[in-house]
Design brief:
With 101 residues, the chain is of the alpha+beta class. It is 37% helix and 24% strand. The chain has a 4-stranded mixed β-sheet. The longest helix is centred in the middle third of the chain and has 13 residues. The protein is globular and about 40 Å long.
């Protein structure tokens, strides 16, 4: 049985995401074609927590098994960063600007 090409990416996900939500600021940047958050979202799903200190990275890794909240930070450009937050119960994942959390 041949697998679909997108199955390869699905296997890399380390956790469920629940509802995917975008903050108003993220939606505005997407509408204005300034931001495509999906590559950062895919990194989050694979356990690449982005631009965080080592202790933050370790907390996220522990949260994968303990069921804690996952919190990633990514520098998109020198002037733009985003956060991706997955709730502890995996009911929702939000992509926000740091000023909106």
């Amino acid at each position: 049985m041949a697998s679909e090409p997108h199955d390869k990416h699905r296997r890399k996900r380390l956790f469920g995401i629940g509802a995917l939500e975008f903050s108003p600021g993220i939606e505005r940047l997407m509408d204005e074609a300034w931001l495509d958050p999906m590559p950062f979202f895919e990194r989050h799903l694979r356990g690449d927590w982005g631009d965080v200190p080592d202790d933050h990275w370790l907390r996220n890794n522990a949260a994968l098994t303990s069921g804690g909240r996952l919190d990633s930070h990514y520098a998109v450009t020198r002037d733009l960063s985003i956060r991706i937050l997955t709730e502890a119960d995996r009911s929702a994942t939000r992509i926000v600007l740091p000023s909106e959390d």
